[in-house]
Amino acid sequence: MNICVVGTGYVGLVTGAVFADLGNDVLCVDNDAAKVINLEAGRMPIYEPGLEEMVARNVADGRLAFTTDLTGAVRRSVIVFITVGTPPKPDGQTDLSAVEDVAGVIGQAMERYTVVVNKSTVPVGTGEFVREVIEKNQVRPVNFDVVSNPEFLREGSAIEDTLRPDRIVIGAPTQQVAMSLLELYAPLERPMIITDVPSAEMIKYASNAFLSTKISFINAIANICELAGADVSQVMKAMGLDARIGSAFLSAGLGYGGSCFPKDTDSLVHTASALGYDFSLLKSVVDINRERAAHFVDLIAKALNPLAGRSVAVLGLAFKPNTDDMREAKSVEVIERLLALGASVRAYDPVAMPQARRMLPPTVTYCESPYEAASGVDAVALVTEWNEFKFLNLERLRAAMRRPVIVDGRNVWEPERMRRLGFEYHSIGRKSVLPTQS
Ligand code: NAD
Fold first, then answer.
1. What are phi and psi of 281, to 5 degrees?
2. Residue located nearest, by CA, to atom 11 of ligand 1
3. Could you report the per-residue pLDDT of 135-190, keeping only the tens digit for each?
């Protein structure tokens, strides 16, 4: 099938590569010419395990190509996917300008019946908006349909998630229109939910809001555990074993970041309010999440008392492991707060440092390894739970530090083990421990 995917970010590039891998003829479009040139040269704009190989294989086999020419791409395609960014406006509302721009060009370019699929995360009602924009821009009336097919991939496992999603949601005006997407996804043999466009749009927001709620819920419980002397790890474990609750997204820590949960929760609060519903539950979820970085820096400040003049190693900068995405990464607020309180920061991340350099203040010192970052510091602050941090040589880390203080924002280590290893160890929702006296 000839398809085109507009936007070559995390969603567009992975979607394009996977559809090509399934045997379709895919043209990926982006208005960022430098990105397209790089992609043509085999250079990926993002870090995503397995992506480079999949792109190279399909480009070599002639099933995947890149262009800035949206008009040409629309004219050769029976299905056009919109996967451009939908960032937040300052008031939390979703900025639909990129979607609107693309829909306008699709309308002008369309010469025959086309299925336009919205894969970007967009507020309920956007399908109708896209339909109106296309219609308004058509030079002559051409039939088309707008479908909502929200994306659920997670950065860091995007290929696997696209090949084996828990479910595929197709919101279409009629069963017949839904069939074209069903056909495209059939080789994946995954459960499909066929519904109307507004319900599909809402499924995406409701899912992300629910997962965010689980995270903020356990973080609120962690706050209470800290006050009560209880251990949130035990609480989480026992709760997670309850089949009605489940352990996913039930880890206490620095809260959620990234390009989706923060903006999608804000957007749903805004949509609800615009429709006349005060979504106070979700507002609290957002508030709890906003307090996490300040709470973490407070733990560091209390441990070092005072923070001014101290040196802190921050391990992990990306918003989560296995990605270089720094959007809404907790590391940014943590580092800015540490610097504002007079500390100096040495940072290390396995892949996100090039992105981080563009976002963090210039006074941050970047290091080649966790051990180099820990060299001479008064505390190590773990911000992103990369696997390599779980397997650090902790004796070597301690030997490099000036003071053996660790503040763990993701509860990666066991307090008792850290005590035995000679650390003063602080974590989230658990009792702090002091080193065993030798
Ligand atoms: P991104 O910022 O990584 O990529 C968007 C791409 O669109 C960029 O390459 C940009 O240059 C391009 N673009 C912008 N305007 C364009 C235009 N007018 N014409 C052509 N290209 C244009 O974004 P992303 O992370 O891939 O997210 C895309 C959408 O998918 C968003 O709505 C997001 O909420 C949603 N989503 C993202 C994820 C994720 O994990 N990143 C997961 C599920 C859903």
1. -60, -50
2. 32
3. 999 999 999 999 999 999 998 899 999 999 999 999 999 999 999 999 999 999 99
Annotated catalytic residue 367: no
Fold for 292-426, please state it: Rossmann fold (3.40.50)
pTM reported for the whole predicted model: 0.94
Q: How many CB atoms lie within 10 A of CB 422?
A: 17
Question: Hey, what amino acid is at 52?
Answer: E
DSSP string across 61-109: TTSEEEES-HHHHHHT-SEEEE----PBPTTS-B--HHHHHHHHHHHHH
Q: Which two tokens stand for residue 117?
A: 């699929």
Domain boundaries, the chain: 2-195, 204-290, 292-426
Most informative mutation of 11, 30, 130 for ligand 1 (most atoms within 8 A of CB): 11
Assigned token pair, 124: 């309920």
Closest-CA residue to 312 (of 363, 387, 260, 261): 363
pLDDT tens across 254-288, in order?
999 999 999 999 999 999 999 999 999 999 999 99
Q: Do domains 2-195 and 292-426 have the same CATH topology?
A: yes
Q: Which CATH class is domain 2-195?
A: alpha beta
At 436 the pLDDT is 78
Q: Which fold has domain 204-290?
A: N-(1-d-carboxylethyl)-l-norvaline Dehydrogenase; domain 2 (1.10.1040)
Tens-digit pLDDT profile for residues 30-73: 999 999 999 999 999 998 999 999 999 999 999 999 999 999 99
